Amino acid sequence: MDFNTKLINWYSVKKRKLPWRKTRNPYHIWLSEIILQQTQVKQGLPYYDAFVANYPTVFDLAEASESDILKLWQGLGYYSRARNLHASAKYIVNELKGEFPDNYKDLLKLKGVGDYTASAIASIAFNEVAAVVDGNVYRVLSRYFGIDTPINSTEGIKEFKALASSLIDHNQPATYNQAIMEFGALQCKPKNPDCSICPFQDSCVAIQKQKVDLLPIKLKKTKVTVKYFNYLVFIDQHKKTLFEKRTKKGIWQQLYQFPLIESEKSLTANEFHLLNFDAAALTTESFDYSLYNETDIVHKLSHQHLYTKFWIIEVKSLPKEAILVNSLSKYPAPVLISDFIDNFSF
């Protein structure tokens, strides 16, 4: 029995029942693929359901405000995905008259859609023979064929794409692509896969050469940057605070936060004076301050570790742009900020 047949037979028995597998609607499949970029199915599923419920068509998504979309996305991370989703929806509605691109080449024109996502949508929604290569596929192919070319090298990307393209079932590309991704997610897992129940145990090179734990090979990760964040949580006698939008490019663009000051190290309460902000611009009165968390809250992103402190600053009055603290939950904010709002007693 060949690789494809075994794989598809396994999938027919083991596949998970997921809502985007019950449809060929390209809009729904596109939503699921964007949400599942950098996100596991378990975490992404409720977000998919929420987006379909709130924006049942691409027209609804295009007409929504970016703020509302970011609020619905809150907690998923990698917020550029949400902004790209919105931009692509408007492109489909305004430039393509609501007609979703129906092939790999045109799907690549959507913002936030690369080779993998275009291949997935083209094959699943339109049955185009376009091989997917994601983390799961890299792992399955690397182990089964015993390939030690780094998967994140230029050579590796080309090699695995060519191999995947040679293997895809031309008669049922949608089923094959979903099968190999599902196999990587459920059976050929990153750590401690149960090879004793693998349908490929007699032909997998990694099993035969005891390299399962060594493959796939990945080049050394980008160095992680450590930053020290100090959020200034102003509260006045009217129960108002300052909450501002991050407009600069980078993490959390277009999300809201308390005024932020970065420092070169983690500061103690006695070092508050090192936070250089203009109190006179906020109030003519004196102010009291306290440190909400003595121990840094560490928030880990892919290339950054944020060591964070929240400083509570009580003042008599704030500028006119201040907002009521009970309206904070209406604004899209990073999980780091959202968790603080949920836990702090204003």
Automatic annotation (TrEMBL):
Question: Which catalysed reactions does the entry list for this protein?
Answer: Hydrolyzes free adenine bases from 7,8-dihydro-8-oxoguanine:adenine mismatched double-stranded DNA, leaving an apurinic site
Q: What is its EC number?
A: 3.2.2.31
Tell me which domain of life the UniProt entry assigns to the organism this sequence originates from. Bacteria
User: What are the residue boundaries of the HhH-GPD domain, all occurrences included?
Assistant: 35-186
The reply on keyword Flavoprotein is no
Name the CDD domains on file.
Answer: ENDO3c, NUDIX_DNA_Glycosylase_C-MutY
Is Iron a UniProt keyword of this protein?
Answer: yes
Gene3D superfamilies on file: Helix-hairpin-Helix base-excision DNA repair enzymes (C-terminal), Hypothetical protein, domain 2, Nucleoside Triphosphate Pyrophosphohydrolase
Question: Which keywords has UniProt assigned to this entry?
Answer: 4Fe-4S, DNA damage, DNA repair, Glycosidase, Hydrolase, Iron, Iron-sulfur, Metal-binding
Q: What Pfam families has UniProt attached to this entry?
A: EndIII_4Fe-2S, HHH, HhH-GPD, NUDIX_4
InterPro entries cross-referenced by the UniProt entry: A/G_AdeGlyc_MutY, DNA_glycosylase, Endonuclease3_FeS-loop_motif, HhH-GPD_domain, HhH_base_excis_C, HhH_motif, MIG/MutY, MutY_C
Cofactor info, note text: Binds 1 [4Fe-4S] cluster.
What SUPFAM superfamilies does the record point to? DNA-glycosylase (SSF48150), Nudix (SSF55811)
User: So which cofactors does this thing need?
Assistant: [4Fe-4S] cluster
**What is the protein's known function?**
Adenine glycosylase active on G-A mispairs. MutY also corrects error-prone DNA synthesis past GO lesions which are due to the oxidatively damaged form of guanine: 7,8-dihydro-8-oxoguanine (8-oxo-dGTP).
Q: Which NCBIfam families match?
A: mutY
Q: Which family does it belong to?
A: Belongs to the Nth/MutY family.
Q: Which PANTHER family match?
A: ADENINE DNA GLYCOSYLASE (PTHR42944:SF1)
Q: What is this protein called?
A: Adenine DNA glycosylase
